[in-house]
Amino acid sequence: MVNQLHMRFRSVAENVGLARLSVAHMAARAGFSLSDIEEIKVAVSEAVSNAVIHGYGNRTDGWVAVECSVEGPELTVSVEDWGVGIKDVAEARQPEYSSDPERMGLGFVFMESFMNQVTVRSQVDRGTRVEMSRTFAMQEVLSGDAQ
Q1: Which of 134, 114, 57, 121 is nearest to 92 (CA)?
Q2: Residues that are catalytic
Q3: Where are the domains of the chain?
Q4: Residue 20 in 3-state DSSP?
Q5: Is the torsion defined by CA of 11, 16, 17, 20 positive or negative?
Q6: pLDDT, tens digit, 9 for 90 and up, residues 62-88
């Protein structure tokens, strides 16, 4: 069975936690371990934070959409905004790059470290969509190691 979550909320920093916990619940129900779930939560937090901070420049009138699906051992998460977009995605994915000098520029580094696959699609003045996936080993489930 495929389980899915679709949510859309305003670009308010407090909603990062809402997205993070909702996806964590999906991951827990799917059988991911606690350490896997913590890493997934970080990746989701970074993607949603990027939408709020960079996509909308901390404006609270934008929308962020989060979709999550679980099919078998694979969890897929997408985070989308309709903000300013990213001029150069390859540059933005470089460690320590940030359009905001107050930020460390490690969001994509964390996403790529904690997820098996990260795809970024963006158009200037039209927004950004980040798609991430992570798979757990079926051995964990079969041996009872999954939480």
Answers
A1: 121
A2: 46, 50, 103
A3: 2-142
A4: helix
A5: positive
A6: 999 999 999 989 999 999 999 999 998
Residue with tokens 């098996």: 116
- Residue 53: phi and psi, rounded to 5, are -75, -50
Residues of the chain with pLDDT under 70: 1, 96-105, 137-147
CATH architecture of the domain with range 2-142: 2-Layer Sandwich (3.30)
How distant, in Å, are the alpha carbons of 1, 24, 60, 139, 146 from that of 45? 26, 11, 17, 28, 23
Q: Is 14 helix (H, G, I), strand (E, B) or coil?
A: coil
For the beta carbon of residue 113, count every other beta carbon within 10 angstroms: 12
- pTM, to two decimals: 0.87
CA gap 83, 10 in Å, rounded: 12
CA angle 13, 19, 25 (to 5 degrees): 150
CA distance 115 to 135: 8
Q: What is the mean pLDDT of the chain?
A: 89
Residue pair 69/3 in contact (Cβ under 8 Å)? The answer is: yes
Cα–Cα distance for residue pair 3/124, rounded to 1 Å: 32
74 bridge partner residues: 71, 135
Taking residue 43's Cβ as centre, other Cβ atoms within 10 Å add up to 25
